[in-house]
Amino acid sequence: MRPIRTWMVVLALLPCLATTAGAIMPAGVQLEKVLTVKDGLSHNSVLAVAVGPEHVYVGTKRYMTVLKRDGGVTVWSPKNSGLKFHQVPAVVLRGTQLWTTCRSPVAGGGTYRWDGLQWEWFEEIKDDMQSNYISCFHVDDKNMLWIGTEDQGINYYVHETNPYRKFGYLASKKGLLDNRVTCLSGRPGELWIGTLSGISVYRGQEGEKYLFTNHSKATGLPADHIVALAVSPERAFAGTTMGLLVFEGGAWRLLGKESGLADPWITALALDGSDLWIGSKKGLQLMRGGRIEPPIDYRDGLPTATIRCLTLGRQADGVNRVYVGTDKGLAILRRP
Length: 336
What we know:
globular, four-stranded antiparallel sheet, single chain
């Protein structure tokens, strides 16, 4: 009977070992807090985050949650804001302006601007918008606002310099690879555009000519369903459904599980200096010095392993943070 009792003890310990095993946090990184609906979050599924000096704006599947630096929480809904619909899939800060979108599977969507005093709603056709179905925003180094749509290319805000028009646009007829835009990023002089057919790099106009360089399978791109982009002057990273694309020295290479990725289907990317944060459905990873570290997931304190969005930011307290949106809440990491 003694061997049987020993085996039973080992079996009893296995669940404990399985639940406590996990990745070690990267050097200098700490889990500061996790926010869920119990803490005032309007919905546990976090789709987008924008960080300002005093407030953090969190777009969710149901309304927008505003986190105040003093710890207060406010929820913006159609009842107390200019937002017309429930889902908030994208948000960005442009100076003191908050730009966002909201979505209804039945009634459509739209683009919204909050200037701290009032809301303005921009609509398809009426306001020179190509579409009400917005997928992403980007503010470049010249403070230009770019708006990616699901099926009609890109809008950019021009009303401050052109009183007769609110938005310009880029589309396939001007050289864009695909009008189905999934993500935007950029570096000085270049707008990087992720689509369902690859990547377009836009460098502005020369007269009537639109300056595009397109990367697709036809030009040697290893994977063309682009999910996320993160671009620096030295290199570019693209998250795809088949792994992580790295553009360096004029050439693309694809990293997969053999390189340390927990899951080849990337869901979010964020550059942190020379490091890269990588989100997938199997956790959060840090690529540091060319090495992809083991995934951080629910065993390390995250609400779940499914990462939906990543944003880096610093508030007025001077602390650098990584905001990790998941489908079960928002995790906030402190970093050096």
